[in-house]
């Protein structure tokens, strides 16, 4: 049971990371909800795509 739970968590982490690369604001929204980090992600992605991706990866991996 625990092994399956770890695999599910690992799979969801991988999906969130891929989503953060492809659609950064959506990944931040699914991880954090509709808060200030979501709006920062929207702004960074619209102005400069790469910083938006980096910010989303940091949020999704709980690095910030």
Q: What is the N-to-C succession of helices and strands?
A: HHHH
Radius of gyration: 12 Å
Beta-strand portion reads under 5%
Major sheet, described briefly?
A: none
| Residues in helix, % | over 70%
Keywords: Membrane, Transmembrane, Transmembrane helix
Transmembrane segments: 12-31, 37-60
Family: Belongs to the UPF0057 (PMP3) family.
Organism: Rufibacter glacialis
Q: How would you describe this protein?
A:
- The protein is an all-alpha fold.
- Helix 2 (about 25-30) runs parallel beside helix 4 (about 50-60).
- It has helices at about 1-20, 25-30, 35-45, 50-60.
Question: What is shown here, in short?
Answer:
This protein has helices at residues 2-22, 24-32, 36-47, 49-60. It is mainly α and 64 residues long. It has one domain.
Itemize the secondary structure elements and their pairings.
Elements: H1 2-22, H2 24-32, H3 36-47, H4 49-60
Helix pairs in contact: 1-2, 1-4, 2-3, 2-4, 3-4
InterPro entries: PMP3
GO cellular component, one term: membrane
Keywords: Membrane, Transmembrane, Transmembrane helix
């Amino acid at each position: 049971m625990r092994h399956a739970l770890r695999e599910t968590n690992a799979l969801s982490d991988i999906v969130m990371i891929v989503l953060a690369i492809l659609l950064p604001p959506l990944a931040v929204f699914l991880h954090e909800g509709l808060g200030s980090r979501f709006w920062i992600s929207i702004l960074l992605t619209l102005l400069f795509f790469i910083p938006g991706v980096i910010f989303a990866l940091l949020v999704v991996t709980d690095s910030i």
